[in-house]
Amino acid sequence: MKLLVFGGRGCLGTELAHAAAERGHHLEAPGRATVDVTDRAASAAAIRDLCPDAVINATAVVGINPCEEDPAGCLELHVSATLGLADTCRALGIPLVQTSTHAVFDGFKPTPYVESDPAGCGHVYGVSKLAGEQLALHRCPGAYVVRFPTMYGRRMNEAPGFVDKMLARLEAGQPCRVPADKLDSPTWALDAARALLDLLENREPGGIYHLANSGMTSYHAFIERLRALIGSTAPLAPAREAEFPGLAPVKPLRNALASERRPPLRSWEEALADYVATVLRPAGGSGDKG
């Protein structure tokens, strides 16, 4: 397959490049300096020029706080740009993959959210991503909306995620305090990328899919497992999410994902151990964080 990825320098985009290379697919990932997706003419020209088998929109404002600070910019990227991509893909008959997030849910469900659960959230980030989902599905029949939980993995950009920040502190021996009441299904982005490629290769029906490593755990338990795997002795203490104030009026506490539409991915424990063994601590190597 020939794939065009917007937002290809982030965690998912980077691991998509690895997954595509594994399977012999050709992947193009122009940076924002080359193609700004908020410029509809530019993104449409890029799609027409490459004529890919699928377009993957992995662009996003990273984090809830930046979206609360600049809702207009958030809406421009998550909604307006998505609308432009959906219309272009529909006109050219090209499948669109719109990436989304567990943050579209309110965080009250005690078990993992599945695709049929009603979405609803109380912050700009989640509302804008949900709007992007609906536009993609409405304007581009057959589009895929793929929702992800908190992810980790290699990345080509300089925007570290939660796990990257915690890993840096653990490796430096610095004390860490991590919420024990915030539950998720942390996922190696390479596993999510492979599952996304499965959808395209198998020509699965369009619609919403949840792609996440199996299981639910707290952020504290996850970092505790990471600390053990890398052999860190950094102090690690449990905390409450409320101790880390943010700009959003509501901070969801339970945002794990599971799928009712496809077979489950491997467990988060197995994925994390594999990531540490093959990326962070490969045998005979110094580690490759991408």
Automatic annotation (TrEMBL):
Enzyme superclass (EC): oxidoreductase
Residues of the RmlD-like substrate binding domain: 1-279
Cofactor(s) needed for function: Mg(2+)
GO molecular function terms listed in the Swiss-Prot or TrEMBL record: dTDP-4-dehydrorhamnose reductase activity
Cofactor note: Binds 1 Mg(2+) ion per monomer.
A Pfam family the protein falls into: RmlD_sub_bind
Annotated coiled-coil segments of the chain: none
Classification via SUPFAM superfamilies: NAD(P)-binding Rossmann-fold domains
Entry EC number(s): 1.1.1.133
Entry keyword RNA-binding: no
InterPro entries per the UniProt record, alphabetical: dTDP_dehydrorham_reduct, NAD(P)-bd_dom_sf, RmlD-like-bd
Catalytic activity: dTDP-beta-L-rhamnose + NADP(+) = dTDP-4-dehydro-beta-L-rhamnose + NADPH + H(+)
Keyword terms, alphabetized: NADP, Oxidoreductase
Pathway per the UniProt entry: Carbohydrate biosynthesis; dTDP-L-rhamnose biosynthesis
PANTHER family tied to this protein: DTDP-4-DEHYDRORHAMNOSE REDUCTASE, METHIONINE ADENOSYLTRANSFERASE 2 SUBUNIT BETA
Function: Catalyzes the reduction of dTDP-6-deoxy-L-lyxo-4-hexulose to yield dTDP-L-rhamnose.
Family classification: Belongs to the dTDP-4-dehydrorhamnose reductase family.
Listed name of the protein: dTDP-4-dehydrorhamnose reductase
